[in-house]
Amino acid sequence: MNRHVKINSARTLAQSHFRTLRLGTPFQPRIDALALTNDWYNWAGYRAPHSLWDEELEYFAIRSQAALLDISPMTKYRIEGPDAEAYLDRVTLRDVTRLKPGRVHYTAWCDDEGFVLDDGTLFRLSPTRFRLCSQERHLPWLLDSAIGYEVSVEEETEAIAGLALQGPTSFAILRDAGFAGIERLKVFDLADFAHDGAAITISRTGFTGDLGYELFVPADKALSLWDRLMAAGGLRGIRAIGYTALNRARLEAGLIVANADFTTAEHAIRADRLRMPDEIGLGFMVDPDKGHFNGRRPIFEARAKKQLRHVLVGLEIEGNLPAEHAIVYWKKSREVGLVSAAMWSPMAKRNIAIASLQRPYGDTVVDDLWVEIYALRELRYQKLMKRAKVVPRPFIKLDRRTANPPADF
């Protein structure tokens, strides 16, 4: 093939990129039928909606009704065998021996240098069977780490579909749908329930800081589960939503997203982009009494030698203009960090943000912080310097999230 043919082939390939189809999830027929905005994005190779009908109202569906979100593209691994507990205890930060069957915990895992590879949720389905859910794909690393353990690791992203049902009426919808005993689930509990001749797993978890559940179902039973929930939720205000609304809710809850609020170790190109657990608010996961785990020595050395360079903080910002991706300054002159997520919070009635700052700024030096916002006004950008102060996360705390039993809204 000569040079001109190669160039023409490359040009043809580049110009036909729009013909490359994204994967559909098992719920895609129902989602496509509701997609009025046609606002799609790529989630791990799947066609996922930013919004379906109105991103503002979709957010309020989470906070005042019940929102249904397809989370099938989330990477899922089935890990089982006699050594499953010991294996997961070795590769993840938190103490897996304390995670009882029927429970879920939020965790993270690091490379050998102590830098975070990803965070996710670990479901203990039985004494020897787990499900690990994450943002990124890690199968080669998980398989390499399993050498020497009597354990099997299989990706089940395509085989298991997932839904998040979040909001104040979510419990009542599941009860009305016939999931008997759902009222017994406390936060981070899980249980199996019968559905359409199969078993599905429902956990009292979510990414909104609200009352909510996540449902995991065999792919061939996905549509019947969607229809069951929609039928039961008609009088409870159930609405399907996209990711933009979820992202707003998670920010109010002070929750972080990999490769949005921090760069994972496998994706970081520059060395100064790597983060240890303590630098992104995950230091609470590191148990000094736990035995060896990936990154243990460098994490504790960094603590002892005070080598931690960054801190992830919540900010409250003057005014009502969101400061997304704004640079953070100290005394209006020294650049000390960057905002990764920001919004005007309807629930908190505050202008809030999550930012990564250099230490000691945001850690011991927390005064005289400013953010630089560019506001588009009459076709011209106006630079605004707004005061910011470090505040605790979460930005809102809803009692209904942890109420036992959940309220019947």
Shape: globular
Q: Indicate the mean pLDDT.
A: 95
**Strand proportion:** 25-35%
Biggest β-sheet description: 6 strands, mixed
Helix content: 10-25%
Task: Work out the radius of gyration.
Answer: 22 Å
Helix and strand sequence: HHEEHEEHEEEHEEHEEEHEHHEEEEEE
Model regions low in confidence, pLDDT < 50 over at least 5 residues: none
Query: How are the strands of the biggest sheet laid out side by side?
Result: 10-11-12-9-3-13
The tally of helices reads 9
**Class computed from helices, strands and strand pairing:** alpha+beta
Give the distance, in angstroms, between the N- and C-terminal Cα atoms: 68 Å
Total E-strand runs:
19
Could you characterize the architecture of this molecule?
It is a single chain. Helix 3 packs across helix 8. It contains nine helices and 19 strands. A hairpin with an 8-residue loop joins strand 11 and strand 12. The chain is an alpha+beta fold and 409 residues long. The radius of gyration is 22 Å and the shape is globular. The termini are far apart. It is 20% helix and 33% strand. The strands form four sheets. Strands 10-11-12-9-3-13 form a six-stranded mixed sheet. It has a six-stranded antiparallel barrel with strand order 14-17-16-15-18-19. A five-stranded antiparallel sheet has the order 5-6-7-4-8, with helices on one face.
